[in-house]
Amino acid sequence: MTTPLAELDAVHVVHRARTGGLWSRDTVHALTAATLTIARGETVGVVGESGCGKTTLAHTLVGIQRPSTGTVTFRGEELWTMSPAARREAIGTGTGMIFQDPATALNRRLPVRRILRDPLDVHGRGGPKQRDERVKELMDLVGLPPGLADGLPGRLSGGQRQRVAIARALALEPDLVVADEPTSALDVSVRAQILNLLLDLKERLGLALVFVSHDIQTVRRMSDRVVTMYLGRIVEESPARDILDRARHPYTRALFSATPGLLDPIDPIPLVGPVPSATRPPSGCPFRTRCWKADDACAAAMPDAEDAGPAHTFRCHHPVDEGESTHDLVAQAAATAPAPTTREHP
Ligand SMILES: Nc1ncnc2c1ncn2[C@@H]1O[C@H](COP(=O)(O)OP(=O)(O)OP(=O)(O)O)[C@@H](O)[C@H]1O
Question: Domain ABC transporter, which positions (predicted)?
Fold first, then answer.
């Protein structure tokens, strides 16, 4: 078996957060028992409701977030047992991060040329001439005209700024790029261009891409594999092509049923009540408080991961049957949902 490019093994991330009074602190379970591998060259989409831990997962993969427990491995080496200098080198040269808002992610006082040279300077890549050449190459790679090299980010359009951010992420030829909501701060008119650019670069450079987004249609279109998260847990991993009608976790099916334009269900699968707080996740399966299939077994223990075919695993005591239609699930959930006034959609 080939070594995965990146790997999380039983990773927990908890934060201590202020919850009310000056001295009152609570534990936030941002990521719980996350186990995931990323292969070279694949695109993995991460979906789930706001606050479910998508960004924490992404940041943990690229070493921005240190796990509270569990291991993070990159190119076969464990990140958090390396020396800080070795880790900086591994992360700095092996991974690239693209953030949501290029307006805040780029240093506004530096011209594009300096922004793109910075990683080359920090990691001592080539001599001055080679670094200048690389800056030109990078601008060309992301479709920025050379004339913008001396421009400040504030003078660029949102789309051009995100191209600069992408070029910076690629400066040291990483193997893994993580894009966290890379288009949500951009005008709708340029979103498709940036997504197509990312896909094109991924193909040309053989990158692995982890793509975090609320835009489920886009995740499905861009990804080879989709990871569904709920309240800090990975509840399903599925090939993107199967996600609509062959996902086995009730939450994945509910999430996708609530996305306009993907399926044509009568209605989204109705879920009861709000997402519980990450400071007090329910016992057992975290989705059980909203799931129409939940019973005592779901409260007793988090299910183990079960295989459902190639690249497909889920964690559920009462999975959706293979081939069960979303229409059937809508009817099932509607029949068991107790109080119509409190129904919410994911
Ligand atoms: N530094 C922090 N201190 C305290 N709590 C945090 C911190 N960072 C994240 N959290 C909490 O951890 C949980 C997961 O957050 P995260 O940002 O990873 O979720 P997300 O799925 O990316 O959310 P969104 O889609 O809204 O960006 C949330 O409950 C969030 O409030």
Answer: 11-256
Name the residue with the closest Cα to ligand 1, atom 16: 53
Nearest CA to ligand 1 atom 12: 30
Q: Is 278 in the pocket of ligand 1 (CB under 6 A)?
A: yes
For ligand 1, say whether the CB of 135 is within 6 Å of any of its atoms. Answer: no
Q: Tally the domains of the chain.
A: 2
Q: Both 91 and 125 in a single domain?
A: yes
Domain boundary among 223, 252, 277: 223
| 213 in contact with ligand 1, CB cutoff 6 A | no
Binding site membership of 30 for ligand 1 (Cβ less than 6 Å): yes
Same domain, 60 and 185: yes
Q: What span, in angstroms and rounded, lies between the C-alpha atoms of 37 and 295?
A: 31
Cα 239 to ligand 1 centroid, rounded to whole Å: 26
CA of 259 to the centre of ligand 1 (A): 22
Atom of ligand 1 nearest to the CA of 31: 14
Question: Is the same domain home to 190 and 314?
Answer: no
Question: Can you say whether residue 111 is alpha, beta or left, with left for phi > 0 and alpha for psi between -120 and 50 degrees?
Answer: beta
Average pLDDT (170-197) is 93
Query: What's the 21 CA to ligand 1 centre distance in angstroms?
Result: 20
Burial zone of 126 (CB within 10 Å; 0-12 exposed, 13-18 middle, 19+ buried)? exposed
Range of the domain at 257: 244-344
pTM: 0.92
Q: Centre a 10 Å sphere on the Cβ of residue 128 and count the other Cβ atoms it contains.
A: 10
| One domain for residues 252 and 219 | no
* Same domain membership, residue 163 and residue 38: yes
CB 255 within 8 A of CB 47: yes
Whether residue 1 lies inside any domain: the answer is: no
What would the pLDDT profile of 89-138 be if each residue is shown by its tens digit?
999 999 999 998 888 889 999 999 999 999 999 999 999 999 999 999 99
- Specify the pLDDT at position 102: 84
My answer on whether 274 and 324 are in the same domain is yes
* C-alpha 53 to ligand 1 mean position (Å): 6
- 148 in helix, strand or coil? helix
Q: Are 167 and 139 in contact (CB under 8 A)?
A: yes
